């Protein structure tokens, strides 16, 4: 049984690594979060009801058309949030999924996150929240801000049960502000939408002189079989809800982010150790990884 599990994990990691044209360095991929959940994501890819391509035509998702039709109303609520300075980075290190993005100035305001509660969104963005609730396939949504000069480094998202939808609200409206998915670039425009598979390597950059604000949504991945769709719904409802992060006091913080807050503070000691002597740090880390691998294989 142990070797069966190890074999499934190795094959799943290889599937994730070689999927698409752009790849992470192999050793980074081994320790990337997408490798830890690779069997789950391999399952999602195997039974996916959409083609295995970086971008998908928005016409495949007609239920999302009302978002684009109402983009000016959505933008008005986003602009009001900006004026109130409500689109922001996490204040208490309680957003594990996007923690690394905050370092470059990326900001967000959650409108919906699976089954989590965000009273702040209902209060400040009632029209957008109501519209999102009318579309069952939208499982999560936020306003995401990328200021001039900001860059999001290459990464894969950890959960293949969703696809990503972006709707341009306030953009430079030119190619200076773009996202690159598996080597193919897309530049945001006001009122225009795009759908892509976030489990391909992607990165983004705003080389323009003005801000970029979009409506950022997770759309439930269509599955080929009803039983696979049921599994996907269950995972989203249980696991992804636990990854919820608050906009402000009163919003729900999921269990994953409560634990992440503790680990983030513990990580401060790790970062001090690394700053003290990088060589010793990497030797100790390699020894610990080797010890864990030996325990899994021979234990």
TrEMBL record:
<keyword id="KW-0472">Membrane</keyword>
<keyword id="KW-0812">Transmembrane</keyword>
<protein>
    <submittedName>
        <fullName>Beta-hydroxylase</fullName>
    </submittedName>
</protein>
<feature type="transmembrane region" description="Helical">
    <location>
        <begin position="279"/>
        <end position="298"/>
    </location>
</feature>
<comment type="similarity">
    <text>Belongs to the aspartyl/asparaginyl beta-hydroxylase family.</text>
</comment>
<dbReference type="Pfam" id="PF05118">
    <property type="entry name" value="Asp_Arg_Hydrox"/>
</dbReference>
<feature type="domain" description="Aspartyl/asparaginy/proline hydroxylase">
    <location>
        <begin position="68"/>
        <end position="222"/>
    </location>
</feature>
<dbReference type="InterPro" id="IPR047694">
    <property type="entry name" value="Lipid_A_LpxO-like"/>
</dbReference>
<dbReference type="InterPro" id="IPR051821">
    <property type="entry name" value="Asp/Asn_beta-hydroxylase"/>
</dbReference>
<keyword id="KW-1133">Transmembrane helix</keyword>
<keyword id="KW-0223">Dioxygenase</keyword>
<dbReference type="InterPro" id="IPR007803">
    <property type="entry name" value="Asp/Arg/Pro-Hydrxlase"/>
</dbReference>
<dbReference type="InterPro" id="IPR027443">
    <property type="entry name" value="IPNS-like_sf"/>
</dbReference>
<keyword id="KW-0560">Oxidoreductase</keyword>
């Amino acid at each position: 049984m142990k070797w069966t599990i190890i074999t499934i994990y190795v094959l799943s990691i290889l599937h994730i690594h070689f999927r698409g044209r752009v790849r992470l360095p192999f050793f980074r991929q081994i320790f990337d979060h997408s490798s830890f959940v690779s069997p789950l994501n391999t399952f999602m890819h195997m039974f996916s009801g959409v083609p295995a391509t970086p971008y998908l035509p928005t016409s495949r998702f007609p239920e999302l058309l009302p978002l684009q039709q109402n983009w000016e109303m959505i933008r008005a609520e986003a602009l009001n949030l900006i004026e109130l300075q409500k689109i922001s980075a996490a204040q208490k290190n309680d957003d594990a999924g996007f923690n690394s993005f905050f370092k470059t100035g990326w900001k967000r305001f959650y409108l919906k996150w699976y089954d989590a509660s965000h009273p702040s969104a209902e209060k400040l963005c009632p029209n957008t929240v109501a519209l999102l609730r009318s579309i069952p396939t939208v499982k999560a949504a936020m306003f995401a801000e990328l200021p001039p000069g900001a860059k999001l480094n290459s990464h894969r998202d950890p959960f293949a049960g969703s696809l990503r939808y972006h709707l341009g609200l306030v953009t430079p409206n030119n190619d200076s502000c773009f996202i690159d998915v598996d080597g193919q670039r897309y530049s945001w425009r006001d009122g225009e939408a795009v759908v892509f598979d976030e489990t391909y390597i992607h990165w983004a950059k705003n080389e323009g002189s003005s801000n970029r604000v979009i409506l950022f949504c997770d759309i439930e991945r269509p599955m080929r079989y009803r039983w696979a769709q049921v599994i996907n719904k269950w995972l989203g409802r249980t696991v992804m809800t636990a990854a919820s992060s608050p906009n402000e006091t009163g919003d729900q913080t999921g269990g994953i982010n409560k634990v992440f807050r503790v680990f983030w503070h513990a990580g401060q000691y790790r970062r001090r150790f690394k700053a003290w002597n990088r060589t010793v740090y990497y030797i100790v880390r390699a020894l610990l990884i080797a010890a864990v691998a030996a325990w899994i294989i021979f234990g």
